Amino acid sequence: MKGSGLANWWKREWGTCLRAVLLALLPVIACLVYCVGKGQGIGQIYLPASERNDELIYYKQVEAILRCGYPQGYFGFNESHALRLSFAAWSPVLMLPWVLWGLAFGWNLMSPVLCNIFLLTAAMLLYGLLAKPNWKQVGITAFLFFLFLPFSWYMLCGMPEIGCISLLIVFYGMAVRYLRRESGLLLGLMFALAGILTLMRPYLLLFLFLPAYLWISRGAGDRPEGAIETGEAGRGASRRLLRGIAARWKAILGTAAIFAAVLGAYAAINFFLAAEYLEPLFYMDWLTAFFERGLLGGMRNFLGSVYYAGVEFLRYMKQGAVSGLVSGAIFCCYMVMFLLLLYQGARDFAALRRHRRSGEDAGGLYGQLVLEAHLAFAFLGMLFAQLLMYNFFDGCKHLLTFLAVGIFVVARMRTMYLKKAVLVGASFAYFFFYHGAGFEAYEPDFAQEAVVERMDSFTRAVERNLALTGEVRPNYDNVVIWVLAEELPEGTAYTGWQYLYSLPAGFGISCCTADYVEENFDSLLSRYLCTVPEGPIEDRCRLEGYEKIAENEYAVLYRRY
């Protein structure tokens, strides 16, 4: 009987499995094609060659977790540190997928890349099995996937964004499955995934609203419709009405409790486990104005902020379209997809009303409308966050996560001549390929012989001279100050922070400005200091008689005590 059941399932689902496997191949193919196009192999990716310094902080924190449980020296900025333990400014939940990978397979410079590829591959497979896209939808997804170069960039680097994107892809697969057949288990898993995503990046709270709506509308579904009944039938209808009201309120209160728990957990993580950054991670002046100036004053400030930020946003979009300015290019792609979601959502809403008035079967149109409407809501919420809370230079990269998951909703839109997919694909091709020269900072980096040799030499010197110390940890004895940059007669010189990959596992890194180090030179807490060779700070290190540990033309490392 079991064999017969499996055979029947295979006959019924073999097409779904095949399409899911094809989707799962897309990340691997995209990475191979990208690397071959650069004349390299995936194994040639080399994190110390990168110019993205966030990668160093993430990598060394994961390494410290795997070797020591948590960093034994403080990660921070201008020698700040978390109230508890020793993590940097961003939520340690972001690193959870990498920690699990490291526990299973070990941790080295290729581990983040391999884990990223695995995460997106697994997410695509699960999406295919859950959402069961047809061949046309698979084709559109593949078309847009290859044109959206940030998929390849993020997989082949040491940034954790692929973890967020992968969870969101699975989240949308669950949503499609739920909208076909309601399931309390799927709804609970959607809440769990959206909660984890919020703990990774706070703006991903926007995705908690989808399972919240589905739960509340599910409770409301028990309310009877039609004429008022009398007698026993009327009493039965009244009982069903009361049950429906009770179910809706249970869903509303349950959703409120989940939101409160997630926000409380994020606030606790941010308060206890995050170090103070060099500048605000996001700006809240528009909100504090309501407390300082009252309701009317706060509203005037809010509308003024939105207006002026909106004008600047449009100016960036214009520069992105004309010259390929990176932030403007991302804004243009974002607005293309956002407006498409609004347009298609409005059309599907009108079509759904026509079907319901005529009593016709809408054929899954309601589920598609829910996905489009929610994602449009999420795009709008993130747009306001970009205008009010983030600077345009750093904030633009956060929009790429929304664009990535938007591909899966666009691929499910009803279309006869593929106009919507072509429109989105054309915007990707224009900005990521035609104007792609501006995206060098996003592109993965490959090993170069000179860089590898300098790194090996620096590592040997560090291994001879540095070791974790102190009975009470974390402490400042196991911290290296990384001076971000110094002003030299010939211009600004940046410290070769890449060579800090050589630090022993467990060491902390405090990214400090030159002004902070110079002003507090005699009272610095950290035991080690890495700075620009032949700069003013190295001159002071020599004057104080600090011990030189390692050096090359880009970085010099001293032991202060």
Q: What would you note in describing this structure?
A:
- The chain is mainly alpha-helical and 561 residues long.
- Helices cover 63% and strands 6% of the residues.
- It is built from 19 helices and eight strands.
- The chain has a six-stranded mixed beta sheet with strand order 1-5-2-6-8-7, sandwiched between helices.
- α1 crosses α4 (111-131).
- The chain is globular and about 90 Å long.
- The chain starts with a helix and ends with a strand.
- Residues 222-230 have low confidence and may be disordered.
The parts where pLDDT drops under 50 for at least 5 residues are 222-230
Helix content: 55-70%
Largest sheet: 6 strands, mixed
User: What is the percentage of strand-forming residues?
Assistant: 5-15%
**Average pLDDT value?**
92
Number of strands: 8
| First-to-last CA distance | 74 Å
Class from helix and strand fractions = mainly alpha
From the spread of the alpha carbons, the general shape counts as globular
Strand order of the largest sheet: 1-5-2-6-8-7
